[in-house]
Design goal:
By secondary structure, this protein is of the alpha/beta class. It has seven helices and five strands, in the order αβαβαβαββααα.
């Protein structure tokens, strides 16, 4: 975040609460980023949707996560995504399954904070690319993650079993 705010007037919203929340809050204080980072704690689904809609770029730099519904939620409201990869592990897929590099967002290898910042700034400063990637995100959700299509696929699997 420090390298991003040197280049752009942005604000980071961190929604939810996890085991590292207090550590992150102390780091924000230490780096004097209080005016640039907002911790929302837990929010209602309605407020969460509003947070997705108000953001320009959804960033998810997770160190490990299985299926990432937050990336999918951001994509469903047409947001480009910058996320991290899975360190080559076959067991852990963060966002690289949903985010197509250079198509609807960027997938950055971990841990590369400078590259992560570069990709975020690329989308912040390129309105056309940000809009195009966002539209593509929405199309991916409609095409691949529609519940009716998923249910039909599951029915076919169960019938074959």
């Amino acid at each position: 975040m420090p390298s991003i705010i040197k280049e752009a007037d942005v604000k980071l919203y961190i929604a939810g609460k996890g085991p590292y929340t207090e550590i992150l809050k102390k780091l924000v204080e230490k780096l004097n980023l209080n005016k640039k980072i907002v911790f929302t704690s837990f929010v209602s689904k309605k407020k969460l949707v509003n947070l997705y809609r108000m953001c320009d770029v959804f960033v998810h730099p997770s160190l490990s996560e299985g299926y990432c519904h937050t990336i999918l939620e951001a994509m469903s409201v047409g947001r480009p995504v910058v996320c991290t990869d899975d360190f080559g592990s076959e067991m852990v897929k963060v966002g690289s399954e949903m985010v197509k590099e250079g198509y609807n967002g960027y997938v950055v290898s971990q841990p590369e904070p400078d590259l992560l910042a570069e990709k975020i700034l690329d989308l912040i400063f390129d309105d056309n690319k940000r809009c195009l990637f966002g539209k593509r995100s929405r199309k991916i959700v409609e095409r691949d993650y529609d519940w009716n299509k998923i249910i039909n696929k599951l029915i076919k699997i169960f019938k074959n079993l």
